Amino acid sequence: MLSVALKPNTRRRMAAIILSTSRLFSASWSSLSRRTLVTTASRCTEAQARAQFYTDEHKELQRSLKKLIDSEINPYVDQWEKEGQFPAHQVFKKLGQAGFLGVTKPEEYGGLGLDHSYSVAMSETLGTINCGAVPMAVAVQTDMATPALARFGSHYVKEQFLAPSISGDKVSCLGVSEPSAGSDVANIKTTAKRQGDDYIINGQKMWITNAYQADWMCLLANTSQGQAHRNKSLICVPMDSPGIHLTKKIDKMGMLSSDTAQIFLEDVRVPVENLIGEEGMGFTYQMLQFQEERLAGAVMTLSPMQTCIQSTIEYTRERKAFGQPLLNNQCIHFRLAELETEVECLRALIYRATDLYVAGDDVTKLASMCKLKAGRLGREVTDSCLQFWGGMGFTNEVLVSRFYRDLRLVSIGGGTDEVMLAIICKLMGTLPQLPMKK
Amino acid sequence: MSLKVLVGCKRVIDYAVKIRVRPDKLGVVTDGIKHSMNPFDEIAIEEAVRLKEKNIVKEVIAVSCGPTQAQETIRTALAMGADRGIHVEVPAKEMEKLEPLHVSKILAKLAEKEQAELVIVGKQAIDDDTNATAQMTAGILNWPQATFASKIEKKDDFLEVIREIDGGLETIKVKLPAVVSADLRLNEPRYATLPNIMKAKKKKIEKMKPADLGVDTTPHFEVIEVTDPPAREAGIKVEDVDTLLLKLKEVGRI
């Protein structure tokens, strides 16, 4: 009997082959099911394992990270939100020491070389931080500024920038968006012109998370003329290079402990060795890691939404109006049940997308769906829950109002809802053809 | 050093959970509730691992009694640095009625079987707060005990232990083999790092039943009722000490 030696995917595929050939011979199903190599019992445990999604190692990772969050991060979040900045170097160093910043990164540079399901496990637990800003900053470090570097960078750039980012000694930021190009990445204007052994960089970047504390930036710039998808490159830029100016911190409605700024680059000189991979491949590299970035963005909303629903249940159980707990009102407990159902649907979608991604499939469509749903559901959950908190929900003294502000960004950052919809339409074959550019 | 240390760790309801009494009033709701390792046991495991890192101890064996889920607790111990685990299988229904005396007998038998010279446990479990297992284990083994330890130092063939007692701190010497119970300030448990979590996958967990150790788990107690403590009443403010004394006399407190 095919036992645990084969991976679940292989077993499934073999079962499918056996089933289809059996139907071809139109033998009776019951006699064949007895003779097929996959028994009902093993299919059951396999299904249970798939539904559980996380193995004991994943759960242990989550337990350990939760401990770190509970003692080193959550006690200080309120203070950081008031101050408008969290200490990135301090927090990243603690995470790096415990191995959490290099989960999927290569072992030679301090990473653990684990598959993406571990990264998803970590992102889900990061969602238990009592604000959106800190998980977002960590995601920039692990899932936005470093994936292309890890996959395509030379040994030199990996040593200079990847290894210290994994250990938590250096903080990174991602320089892609610009004042005139956010969703329209192909339209960015920043240039990096080759001059001898250097690139001379000129341009502006906008909405840069970790800008004030970053030691280096993963910059996307135009390195040549030509087609917008083939003329860009990713370059590692040390943030202390002369010519880099930051504006004052952008005053945002949420994600308050995250320092976000506009960055001006004036004749910034960077050695050619700082190029990641090949010139002209920058756009492609960025696109490749979007699946991971979008899955991470979606996964990180699960815990905050769960927390909102759970805390609203507790609050409305205690809070009384007209002689009984608010929770006794059908409009409230039914609505919370609806929201709980939707969160469960999103969770199933995310786990399925991750499973397929780990198995080697392209999950662009599913990942885009996850991000789209997460952004919209985050708004629905926080909005409904805030309403049930009544006056208290409107104060800054409760978590639900902070999540209301923080989760609003999910529909915008990391790819807007509209961009996600366009991607899904493209894959559905419903996106109208754009007029050919001359 | 050939010293083997046995560490007991219990799976309890997580400290942050809001406990609710079961409708049948015979216990608290445990289904679907978050569980984790008893915090004092985490401190015990941490201390054992530190002793190993100082080369005072050769092997750390983590033991937990409970249903299948107790293995999660053992795995956390392994991720923190324990070398191997022993899971004493006690089904969930029986676990409700398992008493410190049963656990002490189990630990004593295991200490003998494994030829451990040191047994460390948390001073009490945060679910029943009995604070009895360490003491009874020492009694059964006829070993010296050092409870409420806030510092442990090995000197030659004995341990110098500082204990937290009502009057302050007490320093005692206990000869090995001994039983120690860990108090809050003994150490600050580490986060299991990701590399160690992955390494723990290869560590062994031995399974056995209380009967295999010759321990009878028949309960000696019966829980008659579990209720919430009375809701806290509002207090009153008084202007001065004389009024305070008067009020206390009025309600018969002095």
Automatic annotation (TrEMBL), chain B:
CDD domains, per the entry: ETF_beta
GO cellular-component term (any): mitochondrial matrix
Main localization of the protein described in the UniProt heading: mitochondrion
Segments forming a coiled coil: none
An example molecular function term from Gene Ontology annotations: electron transfer activity
Ranges of residues in domain Electron transfer flavoprotein alpha/beta-subunit N-terminal: 25-217
Alphabetized UniProt keyword annotations: Electron transport, Mitochondrion, Transport
Pfam families: ETF
Cellular location(s): Mitochondrion matrix
A GO biological process held by the record: fatty acid beta-oxidation using acyl-CoA dehydrogenase
Gene3D superfamilies for this protein: HUPs (3.40.50.620)
Signal sequence residues: none
SUPFAM superfamilies: Adenine nucleotide alpha hydrolases-like (SSF52402)
Family: Belongs to the ETF beta-subunit/FixA family.
Subunit and interaction comment: Heterodimer of an alpha and a beta subunit.
Function of the molecule: The electron transfer flavoprotein serves as a specific electron acceptor for several dehydrogenases, including five acyl-CoA dehydrogenases, glutaryl-CoA and sarcosine dehydrogenase. It transfers the electrons to the main mitochondrial respiratory chain via ETF-ubiquinone oxidoreductase (ETF dehydrogenase). Heterodimeric electron transfer flavoprotein that accepts electrons from several mitochondrial dehydrogenases, including acyl-CoA dehydrogenases, glutaryl-CoA and sarcosine dehydrogenase. It transfers the electrons to the main mitochondrial respiratory chain via ETF-ubiquinone oxidoreductase. Required for normal mitochondrial fatty acid oxidation and normal amino acid metabolism. ETFB binds an AMP molecule that probably has a purely structural role.
Name of the protein: Electron transfer flavoprotein subunit beta
